[in-house]
């Protein structure tokens, strides 16, 4: 969706150029970011440039983040993905020079600000936390994965519509649980994301690099990719009355087709432009293969049932994900008034309302994007240990006069639809509403 670049971006000095593209993709966002970030072909952290080429050569198996982010500003990524002080000292040997121009992003991470204060307290707390809850997350994910394949096989053998829906739901939960792992170093669990036609590399860009760092801003790719069908940015120049209400009618179709459109877009661009398909994209075919090998169904019937399962999973994923935390008239969206304190952590708090109805169950948290605010602040930490951090989190919020807001899922669904209708910007920042 094209929006004229007279529209200012509240968290950066530049309007992101990818927003002027006809078709918005994860890899197009990354190319645009390299053009916009003024990192001079290197890696930028704050106003210093680094060259991590030698590090990548020595660590070829775990350097996805560095390979993909060359030529960009990785300040927020670096801070959010490293709790220890060690990486900050190690990168000194890779320093090249100071950047010519100032950072284009206006978000801050001052040592005495909200995020760095909370980060120090969390770092001190982690050694005292029982790590068994991490094992519980692993067990839940494995159980979901096995249950998905068992249900898929039973679906093919008994040709049951009810089992088809159950298989799609379990696949959705497996994918969401895999999200717990793809903010970290490469690991086998994150590749189960590909079972639903999604690509873990593309979603690392659109979700981890874009959405997690700059939620609800023009830099948030997950906000842009659904436009013009679903437009959450309050813009009366773009969101006509017709478009607002049409979005309600086509919303179910968009939900059901999201996974299919993702892979079709990548196939198209791999053929026409550059190859953005990977070996792990083949993992999605393990589901129809299991159906074919374990039943008497024809290949055509297996493929037809598989596509139905994918559409159920896609629909369930969007119902959960798009109503999980980020869209409500009380949440900051691009164009709304923003806090004077541009602390990155406070910006995260202002763009999120947590799901209060999930906190009593680790299973629900893992399969429904629970503990969302803490996850945004510390994405590499396992969901299982996040509940242990709430006392510190609340203490720091009180100190900086901020508040974690919480709704149940029904309230989130209502809020998300009210946001689709909203065209007027909020004149007060979330902390003062």
Automatic annotation (TrEMBL):
The keyword Cytoplasm does not apply. InterPro entries: Cyt_B5-like_heme/steroid-bd, Cyt_B5-like_heme/steroid_sf, Cyt_B5_heme-BS, Cytochrome_b5-related, FA_desaturase_dom. Keywords: Heme, Iron, Membrane, Metal-binding, Transmembrane, Transmembrane helix. The keyword Protein biosynthesis does not apply. The chain crosses the membrane at residues 139-156, 162-182, 253-271, 277-294, 306-325. One of its GO terms (molecular function) is heme binding. Residues 31-100 form the Cytochrome b5 heme-binding domain. GO terms for biological process: lipid metabolic process. May play a role in muscle cell metabolism. Belongs to the cytochrome b5 family. This is Cytochrome b5-related protein.
